[in-house]
Amino acid sequence: MAANMNPERDPLFRALIVTMAIAVVVVLAFDAISHQTGVAAGATGSGAQVTRNTASAPVTYRPQTRSLVVTAVPMLVHEQAGFFDYLKGDFAKGGLLQDKEVWAFSPNTLTVYQGDTVNVTVFNPGDDPHTFTIAEMNFSISVEGGSQTTGSFVVPKTGAFKFFCAVPEHMPYMWGSLVVLPDSAAS
Ligand SMILES: [Cu+2]
């Protein structure tokens, strides 16, 4: 009877021990599986993060050659005095446009990136000669009436630079902006 009272020999007790052992094994197994899943998810997350880092890392811009066409267009010129009577007064001595004509470059804003090579072709369908001049870049081309001229320059620095026609009668009005973006803005 005393032997039967020994808990280690009690079948119920042993069954309980075995059940608990199985439960521990099952819990550990689940923990291991979930841990592995977690590691896998972590690895996937790390991979995604690396991808994101790569995507957001600074991109080295490769300078390009850009061919741009600009046309000289009349806005308020002598030839239009027949259409707009007020121009007669404007162009007369003492008038608002005495010794001046309003021409424009179309388009009047050009955007490039630092380091680009720019081939600019200026079309001049009218009679008056024009120039396309960027003083900061020591660049200037002349375009006779009824012709086109192409010139090339490399954009050395970022910023906004004025291009203009150097003909004195046109210079106050005939101009535009060359916008040069930094390399890091390219994508
Ligand atoms: Cu001009």
Report what the structure shows.
A 4-stranded mixed sheet has the order 2-1-4-7, with no helix packed on it. The chain has a 3-stranded mixed sheet with strand order 3-9-8, with no helix packed on it. With 187 residues, it is of the alpha/beta class. The chain has helices spanning 11-56, 86-91; strands at residues 65-76, 102-106, 109-113, 117-124, 130-134, 139-143, 147-154, 159-164, 175-181. A hairpin with a 4-residue loop joins strand 5 (130-134) and strand 6 (139-143). The chain has one domain (2-185): Cupredoxins -  blue copper proteins (Immunoglobulin-like), CATH 2.60.40. The model is unreliable at 37-52 (pLDDT under 50). Helix content is 28%, strand content 33%. The chain has 2 helices and 9 strands. It binds copper (II) ion. Copper (II) ion is lined by residues 103, 130, 165, 167, 170, 174.
Query: Helical element count?
Result: 2
Classify the fold: give the CATH topology. Answer: Immunoglobulin-like
- What order do the helices and strands follow? HEHEEEEEEEE
Give helix % range.
25-40%
Shape: rod-shaped
- Report the CATH architecture: Sandwich
Q: On the 0-100 scale, what is the average pLDDT?
A: 82
- Cofactors and ligands present? copper (II) ion
Q: Determine the CATH superfamily.
A: Cupredoxins -  blue copper proteins
* Count of DSSP strands: 9
